Amino acid sequence: AFAGASAAGIKSADDLRGAMNDFAAATGLGADETKRYEGILENIYANNYGESFEDIAGSLSDIRQQIGPVVDSWDDTKISEFTESAFALRDTFGYDIPESVRAANTLMDQFGVDGQHAFNLIAAGAQNGLDYSGEMLDSINEYSVHFEKLGMDADDMFKIFQKGADSGAFNLDKIGDAIKEMSIRVVDGSDTTAEGFELIGLNADEMAAKFAAGGESAKEAFDETVAALADVKDPLKQNQAGVDLLGTMWEDLGADAITALADIEDEA
To answer: Are the CB atoms for 125 and 157 separated by under 8 Å?
Structure first.
């Protein structure tokens, strides 16, 4: 029995050594930093995340390669928790760790949330069915910048995704594209945009200035614009204004899905 335990211990030590050699080769880190990550790996393994030392080391190297400058500013506990959250998303929802880390990093970059909050939002979105079209992570990466331009935070983005999905949008990408299209058109100064604002009773120059200011001003302008669109009773007039301000996204999503965004209250 002692011989068996000794052999198992030697194999475990060899597996750990091999995993850390692969990690060092993948990241280019020196001996001291590699030793630090060995301690992080052992802590994650002790918490029952990952399938093996090799699995954990590979995930740590993926994270280190993608967001090294961010990770370098964290302590060991924060790195462990972030990696464990990535494993939890993988094991629960099937998200590849590089993909979920990329989406979490986008949320951190664009909205200033921390890594744990970013993963919590992704998990909540998946639990609430936001990945119904298989595009949630890609939509986060592609459209976060446009939500931020309209003064919204990460929670606002997920609320709009949820409301759009609940209102009949056939994929998440279309909702993000509608926000992108509006963020571009409302400040372009074109005659088409001016007509769209005029049709819903708003001044194009004033609204453009509010949107261009960003932050809370842009968010209020967005809410005002969508609410004004929703209040138009004449369907032909509403449709023309919608096309002016959102282009083909108005036609693709339909009036119900877009105007529903005027009534968002619950936090994601």
So the answer is: no
Give the predicted TM-score (pTM) of the model. 0.88
Rounded distance between C-alpha atoms, residue 164 and residue 36, angstroms: 45
Provide the mean pLDDT of the chain. 91
Q: Residue 261 has what DSSP assignment?
A: G
d(CA 87, CA 1): 34
Q: What is the pLDDT of residue 111?
A: 96
The span from the CA of 57 to the CA of 134, in Å, is 28
- Asked if 142 contacts 175 with a C-beta cutoff of 8 angstroms, the reply is no
Task: Residue 196: count other Cβ atoms within 10 Å of its Cβ.
Answer: 26
Decide if 56 contacts 37 (C-beta within 8 A). Answer: no
Question: Residue type at 243?
Answer: V
Region class of 201: left (phi > 0), else alpha (psi between -120 and 50), else beta: left
